[in-house]
Design brief:
2 strands, two-stranded antiparallel sheet
Amino acid sequence: MLRIGLVLLILPSIALMVVFYMDQSAVNACLELGGSYNYDLAECDLEQKHPFKPLMARHPMLINGTMLLSVVGLFMCMKGLLWRPR
């Protein structure tokens, strides 16, 4: 129970950080070129400006799902640490 809980606690958080930093690096690369990042199409546009749209608004199921898995992992860790079989 404890090992599964630790996996569910850590892996979704790492996956979410990887997705966030990949998205952020694409935005930074576009801004360095002098363009505007189109968040809906995930591409750089050099001609017109686009409003900022956070990752949570673009991928709510990904964010909420990974956070839910982390909370489930936390509860499994707590159960594994507090209620050990005798």
